[in-house]
Amino acid sequence: MKSLPTPYSSSPKLSTIVVGIDVGSPKKGFHAVALCDGRYHDKKVTKSADEIEAWCLKLDVSVIGIDAPCRWSTTGRARSAERDLATERIFCFATPSKQVAETKDFYRWMQAGTELFRIIEQHYQLFDGSTVPVKGKVCFETFPHAVACALAGKVVSAKHKRRIRHELLRQAGMDMEALTNIDIIDAALCALAAHHLVGGTFKTYGDAMTGLIVVPA
Fold it and tell me: How many domains is the chain partitioned into structurally?
């Protein structure tokens, strides 16, 4: 049966640090933003997944949202989460099989993302939707464009993403001074999705087997 977006709601916890991570190619690296109770707290830019892990552990982060596929396609076709997003006219790159990804340079950022998940999952359990409200340290997959659409309550343009996403974060009460480029902005959107996951105001696309994509409800 096709997995449909699932909304949840509960009271948010206080004094909780969450992190969002934008994943680029190995040359570009990782951009990460930490929020404390939904407000800007810190940021980190590095090409090292190990440094991201160490930074999260140092901050005692509870939840981590990552803009990259958490699992490869098992069929060679788009995963359930990507198909579910498409039904709402929110489009993203289809995740290939691991074998295909290893043959094409375009997918190097996805490979960087799966390596980051491998490292992060040593300390943070991958969210599978089975425990609500979320307990313990978890990580999850998210998608900045889908987060922006969720915050706006409609499908927004990806063509003017910096302006639109900047304004949505500002409306969410974010301190924009530290969010200096689109990669940091996207990391902040991922962090905001993590904040909503902690608070219980989120929805999911996909299934646990091929990977859930989490966005604000």
Answer: 1
